[in-house]
TrEMBL record:
Belongs to the methyltransferase superfamily. Trimethylguanosine synthase family. Residues 39-80 are annotated as: Disordered. Pfam families: Methyltransf_15. Catalyzes the 2 serial methylation steps for the conversion of the 7-monomethylguanosine (m(7)G) caps of snRNAs and snoRNAs to a 2,2,7-trimethylguanosine (m(2,2,7)G) cap structure. The enzyme is specific for guanine, and N7 methylation must precede N2 methylation. Hypermethylation of the m7G cap of U snRNAs leads to their concentration in nuclear foci, their colocalization with coilin and the formation of canonical Cajal bodies (CBs). Plays a role in transcriptional regulation. May form homooligomers. Interacts with CREBBP/CBP, EED/WAIT1, EP300/P300, NCOA6/PRIP, PPARBP/PBP and SMN. One of its GO terms (cellular component) is cytoplasm. This is Trimethylguanosine synthase. The keyword Transferase applies. It comes from Miscanthus lutarioriparius. Residues 57-79 have a biased composition (Basic and acidic residues). Residues 44-56 have a biased composition (Basic residues).
Amino acid sequence: MAKRSAAAAPESRSRRGARAHAVRFLQRIHHRFLRLLGATTPKTGRRTAKSARKVVRPREPKSLRAADEKQEQDVEARSPDAAATATAAVSASEAAVAGKYWAHRYSLFNLYDRGVRMDTEGWYSATPESIAASQAARAAPGDLVVDAFAGCGGNSIQFAARGCYVVAVEIDPRKVELAAHNARVYGVEDRIEFIVGDFFRLAPFLKANLVFLSPPWGGPSYIHAPVYTLDMLKPKDGYATFQAAQKIAPNIMMFLPRTVDVTQVEELSWLSCPPLDFESEENYVHHRFKGITAYFGRR
Ligand code: MGP
């Protein structure tokens, strides 16, 4: 008897129905799978606008939604004139999260999409993660580190990820909440002790292997001064800040503006007797000069 070819066999109504059902099911699963990827995957290449909208993130100004679809190169390609005009046109707080900072979110925190939180000051003053990691690499695992102006926690997190124990000092309790949250996002909260307080008042009572100083530079307008001098640091000048750190540890790191007078910074090492070893390093992100780290120490 001749075999009937399956292809030639007429499809029964029930089988057609089952096939249509399977197609619909696969389509549904496909969408869910995409949604899942959009919601849980940290930045891995280009994302569609649709999946980007699914990402959990802090509220951002409406005007920034469009920037979400642009990657860093787009923003960095803007002319400096256009950026300056735009910055001048908006209020100080909006300027802080204007396009370029939002576009830099993954440079600041690689796990941004997992719910990292920042306040206005954090957007423009957090140390980019790759720089914070290279600074932390100078510490030894197990070191006790005081992060004197912890802000939203970027540096503390990298020291903790390095295996250090960190005392994160921050005067603004709201920032401490953000930093503690971000430390949980990175899974390093067990290695960081957060203290709400004034670094200058606490310094005489602290002891550590290393103090990390990334104090306020005076906001994004710091760049308008052709040379940044140590008296421009906030809330106290660089000398007072450095001397407070000296009471705590023999090793000090300072993250400073790219326009800082490095000779003046080097002179800080002479505040110790014998003078501390000094090294300065230029820090770049995607070939853009972001700041200078000064390392002072005895090892
Ligand atoms: P920037 O020079 O203001 O911006 O800050 P950017 O994106 O480099 O500007 P452009 O000209 O390249 O487009 C560069 C980096 O310096 C920031 O990412 C912060 O890490 C750091 N930084 C900036 N400010 C204003 C401060 C500050 O006040 N305090 C500290 N500690 N760091 C700052």
